[in-house]
Amino acid sequence: MQPSLQIKNLQLSLQNELLLKLSEDVIGGEVLTIMGPSGSGKSSLLNWLTGTLPSAFNATGEVWLNGLNIDNLPSHMRHIGVLYQDPLLFSHLSVAGNVAFAMRKGNKKQRQEKVEHALEQVGLKGMGKRHPDTLSGGQQARVALLRLLLSEPKAILLDEPFSKLDTQLRVDIRQLVFEQIREHTLPAIMVTHDHSDAEAAQGKVVTLQPLGNQDAR
Amino acid sequence: MALNSNAHQRNKVDFFSRITKFSPHFLLCILIVPVLGGLLSVLLPAFGWAPAMEQTTFGLHGFKALWQTPGLGQMVMLTITTGLVSTVLAFVITLLMLSAFFNSPWLNRIQRIFSPILVIPHAAAAIAVGFLIAPSGMISRLISPWLSSWELAPNGIFPHDSLGISIILGLTLKELPFLLLMALGVLAQPELGKKLKQQHQVALNLGYYPMTAFFKVVLPSLYPMLRLPILAVLVYASASVEMPLILGPNTPPTLAVAIMHWFQDVDLNLRIKASAGALLQLCLSGGLLALWLIAEKAISRLSHAPLTNGKRQYCDAIWNKVTILLTLLIIAFIGLALIGLILWSLAGFWRFPAPLPEHLVLLHFESAIAQMGNPLFNTLAVGVIATMFAVIVTLFCLEAEQLSAKPLSRFTSIIIYLPLVIPSIAFLFGLVWIQQLVHEQASFFNVVFVHLLFVLPYVFLSLASSYRRLDPRFARVAASLGTTPLNVFLQVKLPQLFAPILIAIALGLAISFGQYLPTLLAGGGRISTITTEAVTLANGASRRTSAVYAIIQMVLPLIGFMLAWILPKYFFKSAYK
């Protein structure tokens, strides 16, 4: 069966005011881009997908992941990985520790080898013992990506993940992320402000309008 | 004339700035001199040098007398177990609650339930707990006779059980809200709190169960911020006298209680032994601190590998249920204790298994209040003077920090906590020795001064963060308009800080109201406050009068906090848009 993330008839509202309506199918390896001004409900959409929608919001509709309805599952059982604006690396762990944290449990030696191999693949060979704060912004973004992928998610959400990187780095990291998504045939949803992100994703683009909410800036 | 007023102006500015810049040194003096002086004056008599008693030969007879005290080993064991077990329990339950309710609205609700407990004096809490677990207390009434088949109050072991379980229960219930609110305070810090919440969410996204995510991701960054409060709790729990006095066994009591009795004995020679005991207490509390720090290192080393082993859950579902159950139990226990206390204060005739008294009367309140005039006046007078002084010194120190544009030295910041991390029983006796030498008759002044030592750290803690958060641009604008530093301080900064200052005052008053040992010792028994009366009444006199005193002990600080909460809504409103 082809991996897929389906949003069925989502209606998201805040205090009885409709924020957005959405019905989309994303198949493995594809990136759906969601654009729109702030206040249009982009981040609430991601919160709904991860099961962390604040109680002030109201949502109807279903989300299906690989043919399973995951509406009622808590965050930690959804197998949806998120890449945020900030790398959010754990500062009490080394770089290798951050990556190992995400991996399934298993033989200690094999896990170690896998971490080293993964770091090498993204150009961070030999940096496993370092503290995450000593890495550059681009290196931190790579570690965050590795951490995400090694947790073997079934779908990926990208929450403006490149917006804090400068232009050249942005192009490189973006390319790396999309390559990995295709390679792992993961369905992905990206929320962004930036049109170049949307073009690079080469997928469908949905632009949200601030529905019914005239005050939204 | 113009020249004259100019010079006058400059002098005034200089005077304010000079006082302000001097204030941190003053703060250090009033903390270091009494605490270290007190420690020294315990040390010398412990080794036999006490000119006041015409003993000037150094020797170990104080310690010999101490070793020969029957039951010393039991005292030491009781001190160690109650201190350590209650601290560990309070800490573990704090962690369980934080981890189970980390992202839930329940955390705020629990915070709201627990905050008032924080300002309840230890003595009042002990009285309430004692009533609840006593053989004829609320718990035993609720299960009798249908479950226990007790028709008459049984011969229970609680409170005053020889193992110190009652003490542990009382201390744990009192320290748990403190640690929990400290932790929530850390999580409420804008940057760190947000980062920890996001990292917790990252861990959830990676498939970690919520409680495991807390322990593996949040705790390692949170713990260093909690270390100081925990150590303060550990020292307090191992050396306090109120809880063991009201809830503990008598034969033998904890070391701190025994020392207190020796010091108050008419036989002055026992003071040498008491000083030796104070030194032993210092070693015990110090030993517990060392043990905690070693255990901390060991746990941190042992947990290093499991942190990244990829295991997503450790029976999280069970732990979650256990924590919810424990939380409900604790809340029910606290609720029952308070209800029981109120019922006792109003009870007319109250037959044993009946869950409610037959009549409610105001008699106990009326007769207690009729006799309460003097203690109440002392409580308020000591509290107000000590708190006002503490608030003024704190404000000057914080202003000095801003005037000189550099933070207080690390040394000063640590010294502020000195009275909290040194067992008070160890330095108080020494301090009282000195005070008796200097001015024996000024017992009121002595009490105020000793209260100041305990009020200052809390007032400082409470004011520092708001003062440091003040937007410096207001002061700069005012200064650029030609306002003197004194007027910037009085007219710009203080009004903006109205609410935090009131909170600090309420906290200072609450701390002062609750002091037992300092009041008793520094006042030489001549200054009675609501708290000293309550403790005296708790062991003996009528349960009903004791309940009235405990309730008044709880109400006084609450009034302070309510005023601190209400007043800013009417005054200087513009500062809090």
From TrEMBL, chain A:
PANTHER family: SPERMIDINE/PUTRESCINE IMPORT ATP-BINDING PROTEIN POTA, SPERMIDINE_PUTRESCINE IMPORT ATP-BINDING PROTEIN POTA. SUPFAM superfamilies: P-loop containing nucleoside triphosphate hydrolases. This is Fe(3+) ions import ATP-binding protein FbpC. The keyword Electron transport does not apply. It comes from the Bacteria. Residues 5-216 form the ABC transporter domain. Keywords: ATP-binding, Nucleotide-binding, Transport. SMART domains: AAA. GO terms for molecular function: ATP binding; ATP hydrolysis activity. Pfam families: ABC_tran.
Automatic annotation (TrEMBL), chain B:
It is a multi-pass membrane protein. It is found in: Cell membrane. SUPFAM superfamilies: MetI-like. InterPro entries: MetI-like (IPR000515), MetI-like_sf (IPR035906). GO terms for cellular component: plasma membrane. Residues 72-292, 376-564 form the ABC transmembrane type-1 domain. The chain crosses the membrane at residues 26-52, 72-101, 113-143, 163-188, 226-247, 274-295, 322-347, 376-398, 410-432, 444-464, 497-517, 547-567. Its main location: membrane. GO terms for biological process: transmembrane transport. Belongs to the binding-protein-dependent transport system permease family. This is Binding-protein-dependent transport systems inner membrane component. It comes from Aliiglaciecola lipolytica E3.
